[in-house]
Design a protein that fits this description.
The protein is elongated, with a radius of gyration of 36 Å. Strand 9 (194-199) and strand 10 form a beta hairpin. The strands form five sheets. A six-stranded mixed β-sheet has the order 3-17-16-18-14-15. It has a five-stranded mixed β-sheet with strand order 10-9-13-11-12. The chain has a three-stranded antiparallel β-sheet with strand order 5-4-8, with helices on one face. The protein is of the alpha+beta class. It has nine helices and 18 strands. Helix 2 (15-37) packs antiparallel against helix 9 (365-390). The protein has helices spanning 2-12, 15-37, 72-91, 162-174, 216-222, 248-253, 301-307, 342-350, 365-390; strands at 47-51, 61-65, 67-69, 107-112, 139-140, 146-149, 153-156, 183-189, 194-199, 205-208, 230-239, 242-246, 268-273, 279-283, 289-291, 316-325, 333-337, 358-363. It folds into four domains: 2-40 and 368-390, no CATH class; 47-78 and 276-364, Roll (Outer membrane lipoprotein wza fold like), CATH 3.10.560; 86-98 and 193-275, Roll (Outer membrane lipoprotein wza fold like), CATH 3.10.560; 107-125 and 136-189, 2-Layer Sandwich (wza like fold), CATH 3.30.1950.10. The relative contact order is 0.12.
């Protein structure tokens, strides 16, 4: 029987072709054995990445990136660090609301009772409904902080409260033709101080500061409230050229009231979008996706995997689950989780992801071998076909 097979093989394939076939098979075996030990198929701690230096004649740079296993101690340390950082940033913004003080640009309505002749100084009443851009009727505080009123002249009211300005105007009129005048002062239009709210709110733009204390919540409410796409854990407050991160979710978890943050004139509050803070999930998952945080800004590792349709049971190696953090910085970090055990998913549910993290699931050994064969076999078959045709 063996001699018959050999005779058939000699008839179909000459000896030289059989030798070529044998060499090809041996080459594939060597390549497959090399693939099992090739560097980079699994990350080990510490891992070394070769980065081109960009200059001719110089060896590539070697960057040591440690791989840290995800465990309960790591998660606890990360939470404590996040709580301390958030508390330090928000503590600098806490303050007590102060009474509103007048400033250049504010419009005052000044009434002197029993003296109707002074009412004409306010100007004629408009017959039609005023437009939003029309100036309010009253006395405007000029750039020098003065308000000009008949028989009182220029009165410096900048930096005064409304009641203080009312008393000062009454005293100035007492020096003129009026004896103990009864004066009422109110702010007709608050135009001197304002904050700016931008991003994921319903009506972004300038929000004037008035006699109601302007807290963080008040600023968001006057801007129409949060949009459904807002990330409430990553607000940015810019004050005097310094940016402060505000995590409303963390503040409420630690019994800190956001109403303790008092806005100041010129502040810029930006509400980021959840789409900007997504996490990239790739590798052996059923649906590679950019995972979006929830409305409170939280996104755990298990949440990201769930949005990606879970691990691919046919190709994924659950023991090789990685989180790459800070890939665009000079000191990236890699975290590893062995997700074979159901207990590991408890850790995945507690491990909080950060914006622009990369979640990567490696493939199993069989998948890698299959992919190598799919790349090599077409070339081997083409070589064998060419060898047969040449004979």
């Amino acid at each position: 029987m063996g001699s018959l097979i050999n005779r058939v093989a000699d008839a179909l394939w000459p000896a030289s072709v059989r030798e070529t076939h044998l060499v090809a098979i041996l080459s594939v075996s060597v390549l497959l054995s090399a693939c099992t030990a090739a560097p980079g198929m699994r990350m080990v701690a510490p891992a070394a990445l070769q980065i081109a230096s960009g200059e001719a004649g110089k060896p590539p740079l070697e960057l040591q990136i440690p791989v840290t296993d995800i465990n309960a101690e790591i998660i606890s340390a990360m939470r404590e660090k996040e709580a301390e950082t958030s508390a330090d940033q928000t503590r600098a913004l806490f303050g007590k609301p102060a009474p509103y003080t007048l400033a250049p640009g504010d419009v005052l309505q000044i009434t002197v009772w029993d003296h109707p002749e002074l009412a004409a100084a306010l100007g004629a009443q408009q017959q039609t409904a005023p437009r939003p851009t029309d100036p309010a009727q009253g006395f405007v505080i000029d750039d020098n902080g003065n308000v000009h009123f008949p028989y009182a002249g220029a009165i410096d009211v900048a930096g005064l409260r409304v009641d203080q300005a009312q008393q000062l105007i009454s005293e100035m009129l007492s020096h003129g033709p009026y004896e103990k005048p009864q004066v009422t002062v109110r702010v007709a239009s608050f135009r001197a101080k304002q904050v700016y709210v931008d991003g994921e709110v319903r009506t972004p733009g300038a929000v004037p500061i008035n006699d109601v204390p302007m807290t963080l919540y008040e600023a968001v409410n006057r801007a129409g409230g949060f949009n459904p796409t807002a990330d409430q854990s990553r607000l940015v407050l810019v004050r005097n050229g310094v940016s402060y991160g505000i995590d409303l979710t963390s503040m409420l978890e630690h019994s800190q009231s956001p109403s303790n943050i008092v806005m100041k004139t010129g502040d810029v509050l930006r509400v980021t979008s959840r789409d900007e803070n997504g996490v990239f999930v790739m590798g052996e998952v059923n649906k590679p996706v950019t995972a979006i945080p929830f409305r409170d800004g939280r996104l755990s590792l298990s949440d990201a995997i769930s949005q990606a349709g879970s691990l691919n049971s046919n190709t994924a190696n659950a023991a090789q689950l990685y989180v790459i953090r800070g890939s665009l910085t000079k000191s990236p970090q890699v975290y590893h989780l062995d997700a074979h055990s159901p207990v590991s998913m408890v850790l995945a549910n507690q491990f909080e992801l950060e914006p622009k993290d990369v979640v990567y699931v490696d493939g199993n050994g069989l998948v890698r071998i299959s992919r190598v064969l799919s790349l090599l076999l077409p070339a081997i078959n083409a070589g064998l076909t060419g060898a047969v045709l040449t004979k």
